[in-house]
Design goal:
There is one protein chain. By secondary structure, the protein is of the alpha/beta class. The chain has one domain: Spore Coat Polysaccharide Biosynthesis Protein SpsA, Chain A (Alpha-Beta Complex). Helices cover 32% and strands 26% of the residues. The chain has ten helices and 13 strands. It starts with a strand and ends with a helix.
């Protein structure tokens, strides 16, 4: 039903300067694996095989990462270092990768719209790689959301509770709780101040979107920060039908900033790397 995952990866990563001046933020390593690889693994483990990546200037490393490096692989063939590329090679062998460029940075909504030629007229997932999501006790966040989509057949956003003084960093929803952890969205605001936030339920970087979202984005005017916001398009969709918000099971690390990145690195080193996972 859902075959494709879109990865908006054209942003400048300004919260991580100067590291991201010449290096894509999606290539920042969590221990020894880049963020984009964690993201693609999550999509693959959810049953998706076509990875559609929206890149920009200076992002060539993303394409190179999911390609064969003949010189490097020849150099380490037959050594114990070969095992470190096994996971990457498995993704290359089991998934297809396509790329397009977002020529101008006009917001997440515009980035998703830029991926329309790669997606076509079908429902799809969206993953923001700098939101690292892990669930060590069950299905990943995207797999959980795809199971919900099979039941409800509408757009779904992942949410988590955040402190009220942090709402200005997120899109924030309000809605009717229809079952445990699932809300029918009736309000959605991009980066509201704490006093204007409709709740403390913040949208994080996991979405399931139906294909009509593309036309809605195309008709959306620039909003907060002069950017085309996906929350504005989703609010139109919610008014015309149904958008669900899902309080996922697992952990989320904001790796676009130093604090979340360090927390993710320490966690993955202890719970994944040292255990060979």
């Amino acid at each position: 039903m859902i075959r494709k995952c879109l990865f908006p990866a054209a942003g400048y990563g300004t919260r991580f300067l100067p590291a991201t001046k010449a290096m894509p933020k999606e290539m920042l390593p969590i221990v020894n694996k880049p963020l984009i690889e964690y993201a693609v693994e999550e999509a693959r483990d959810a049953g998706l095989q076509h990875m559609a990546i929206v890149t920009g200037r200076g992002k060539r490393a993303l394409e190179d990462h999911f390609d064969i490096s003949y010189e490097l692989e020849h150099q380490i063939r037959g050594t114990e270092k070969e095992k470190f590329l096994a996971g990457t090679r498995d993704l290359i062998d089991t998934c297809t990768f396509s790329y397009t460029r977002q020529v101008e940075m006009k917001g997440l909504g515009h980035a998703i719209l830029s991926g329309r030629p790669l997606i076509g007229d079908e429902p799809f997932a969206v993953v923001l790689a700098d939101d690292l999501c892990l669930n060590l006790e069950g299905d990943g966040v995207l797999a959980q959301m795809i199971q919900l989509y099979k039941k409800f057949r509408c757009s779904i956003v992942a949410i988590q509770e955040v402190p009220r003084d942090q709402t200005h960093k997120y899109g924030v929803i309000a809605g009717e709780q229809i079952s445990d952890g699932i809300y029918r969205v009736n309000s959605m605001v991009e980066k509201p101040s704490p006093q204007d936030a409709p709740s403390n339920l913040a949208i994080i970087g996991r979405y399931i979107l139906t294909p009509d979202i593309f036309d809605l984005i195309a008709d959306t005017q620039p909003g907060k920060g002069g950017e085309i916001q996906i929350t504005d398009a989703l609010m139109k969709q919610a008014q015309n039908g149904c958008v669900l918000a899902y309080k996922f099971k697992g952990m989320r690390f904001d790796c676009g900033g130093a604090e979340g990145y360090l927390e993710a690195t320490n966690f993955c080193y202890e719970h994944l790397y040292l255990k060979g996972r």
